[in-house]
């Protein structure tokens, strides 16, 4: 003890130091406890998110398989009946948002009390109800003789569609020429191409110079598919019908839609009989049909405040339904 410092003052200093040390100890312990709790909370959140991701993947995969089964059974029914694909078939009815447990309630072996509270919705869209942008390019010849050229018939149809939708024809011309150039380089030049990549989806047409605002207008009427396809007259919009069928105006296209709603066309011949009253209207089995092979399947899953959407394009060949591409979109 410092002989110059009074005993009481020294005792107070020791008590203050002890109190400060106790406060520092409490602060350190509280900090460590808070860090441990945060780490535990974070681990729980990561595990919950991963579990939700896996559950969402299983559910959406199941929904995709279910949709493929519907399309396969529709193909089987059409083979037996000779009917075409139309908007009155089961595949064309959208699935409104429904609680997932409602699908499991019919199974007495499932305890729905422990099932994740999820809501599922979706729809199947006939992609051949839209004009295929890929049809603008026609490839002739084989091997080294292969050559891509613009399809004049399809170009006239798309020009008519752009006029009906009040879109600039210059965008169509530039995009079509760029698409032909891309295909020609892909056929003959193995080196990396300086041109835009060949589009696989409608959004990719922006690579060819079509503005996003124009793509938004085109979306209900235009699609990009891997091969040439015909337009399904049972499911196409009035604009697509008027654009693709020479001699058909919008009023006649609306009449065609009215007639198909009453009695869907089984074949192109049925439509030709109905449109025989219109002079100069020409249907062609190279560009039109009553059946479809390509479909888009959209699924939407809501888990609490998390929304997950998925889009898939499938191609139907006989009774086989194969996935062409699949993408997931995270919602809000």
Short summary:
This protein has 332 residues and is an alpha+beta fold. Helices cover 44% and strands 19% of the residues. This is Type II secretion system protein K.
Description:
The protein has 332 residues and is an alpha+beta fold. Helix content is 44%, strand content 19%. The protein contains 8 helices and 11 strands. The strands form 4 sheets. A 5-stranded antiparallel β-sheet has the order 1-2-9-10-11. The chain has a two-stranded parallel sheet with strand order 3-6. Strand 4 and strand 5 form a beta hairpin. Helix 3 crosses helix 6 and helix 6 crosses helix 7. The mean pLDDT is 85.
Q: Which descriptor suits the 3D outline?
A: elongated
Q: Quote the distance from N terminus to C terminus.
A: 69 Å
- Enumerate the spans where pLDDT stays under 50 for 5 or more consecutive residues: none
Instruction: Report the biggest beta sheet as strand number plus sense, adding barrel if it closes.
Output: 5 strands, antiparallel
The value of Rg in angstroms is 32 Å
Keywords:
RuvA_2-like, elongated, five-stranded antiparallel beta sheet, single chain, Type II secretion system protein K, 11 strands, transport, 332 residues, 8 helices
Blueprint (SSEs and pairs):
Layout: H1 7-81, E1 95-99, H2 101-104, E2 118-126, E3 131-132, E4 137-140, E5 147-150, H3 152-164, H4 169-188, H5 212-218, E6 222-223, E7 231-232, H6 238-244, H7 250-262, H8 268-274, E8 288-289, E9 294-303, E10 306-317, E11 320-330
Parallel strand pairs: 3-6, 7-8
Antiparallel strand pairs: 1-2, 2-9, 4-5, 9-10, 10-11
Helix pairs in contact: 3-6, 6-7
């Amino acid at each position: 003890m410092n002989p110059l410092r009074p005993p009481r003052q020294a005792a107070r200093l020791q008590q203050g130091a002890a109190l400060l040390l106790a406060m520092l100890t409490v602060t350190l312990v509280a900090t460590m406890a808070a860090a441990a709790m945060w780490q535990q909370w974070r681990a729980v959140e990561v595990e919950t998110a991963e579990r939700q991701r896996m559950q969402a993947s299983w559910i959406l995969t199941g929904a995709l398989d279910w949709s493929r089964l519907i399309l396969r059974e529709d193909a089987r029914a059409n083979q037996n009946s000779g009917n075409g694909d139309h908007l009155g078939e089961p595949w064309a009815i959208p699935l409104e948002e429904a609680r997932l447990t409602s699908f499991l309630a019919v199974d007495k072996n499932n305890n729905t009390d422990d099932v994740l509270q999820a809501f599922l919705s979706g729809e199947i869209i006939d992609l051949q109800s839209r004009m295929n942008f890929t049809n603008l390019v026609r490839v002739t010849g084989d091997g080294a003789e292969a050559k891509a050229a613009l399809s004049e018939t399809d170009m006239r149809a798309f020009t008519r569609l752009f006029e009906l939708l009040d879109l600039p024809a210059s965008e169509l011309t530039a995009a079509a020429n760029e698409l032909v150039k891309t295909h020609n380089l892909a056929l003959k030049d193995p080196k990396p191409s300086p041109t835009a990549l060949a589009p696989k989806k409608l959004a990719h047409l922006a690579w060819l110079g079509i503005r996003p605002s124009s793509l938004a207008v085109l979306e209900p009427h235009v699609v990009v598919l891997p091969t040439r396809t015909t337009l399904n007259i049972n499911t196409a919009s009035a604009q697509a019908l008027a654009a693709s069928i020479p001699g058909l105006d919008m009023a006649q296209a609306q009449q065609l839609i009215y007639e198909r709603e009453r009695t869907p066309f089984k074949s192109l011949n049925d439509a030709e009989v109905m449109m025989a009253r219109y002079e100069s209207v020409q249907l062609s089995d190279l560009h039109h049909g009553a059946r479809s092979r390509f479909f888009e399947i959209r699924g939407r899953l809501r888990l609490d405040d998390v929304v997950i959407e998925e889009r898939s394009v499938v191609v139907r060949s006989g009774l086989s339904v194969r996935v062409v591409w699949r993408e997931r979109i995270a919602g809000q």
